[in-house]
Amino acid sequence: MSEEGPVYYCISSSGSEVGILAKSYIDQGRLIPDDIMTRLVLSELKGLERYNWLLDGFPRTVAQAEALDKQCQIDTVIDLDVPFETIKYRLTARWIHPASGRVYNLEFSPPKVLGIDDITGEPLVQRDDDKPETVTKRLQAYDAQTKPVLEYYRGKGLLRSFSGTETNKIWPHIYAFLQTKLPDVSQKDAASPR
């Protein structure tokens, strides 16, 4: 599970019926049902066949993996094995300035004054899906649903796992592995995580 969920930002701001429905699940700390998430992601992947791409947090269930396999040829699946408590700490340390969308993390990029936006001086808020009780529910559901997905891809010989708690220690190993899969990726373009 990533610290920033790009799919979540996309669907929460889309305003579409399926996006609004998906956001309601996220706000309750629940994972989005397979059919809704699969429709969202597969529609975004149409037309990307000629590109290399990376999905973060999808598929989360075997049904999603099977649907993805029907539409796309999957070459590699990367599993970031990060302890539950590390993920929970990072997610619950995230605060935002609603008007601007600025994101602060109390560990990595804290505001100058705790709870206050650096630029406007307005209060920061914690999104409902970053509150400790919601994060705990999300991580428990994620863990229960994704173990079978890891086994699914392990059985296909596509899974590669990387363990750790710090990006700068895990990233060099992931980068070296990706170089074997995408040798045309330049050092400049992929030297650091985004």
TrEMBL record:
InterPro entries recorded? Adenylat/UMP-CMP_kin (IPR000850), Adenylat_kinase_CS (IPR033690), Adenylate_kinase_lid-dom (IPR007862), P-loop_NTPase (IPR027417)
**Keyword set includes Nuclease:** no
GO MF terms here are: AMP kinase activity; ATP binding
Q: Which Pfam families match?
A: ADK, ADK_lid
Domain Adenylate kinase active site lid per the UniProt entry, residue ranges: 94-129
Question: Which keywords fit this entry according to its UniProt record?
Answer: Kinase, Nucleotide-binding, Transferase
Reactions catalysed = GTP + AMP = GDP + ADP
Q: Which family does it belong to?
A: Belongs to the adenylate kinase family.
Query: What is this protein identified as?
Result: Adenylate kinase 3
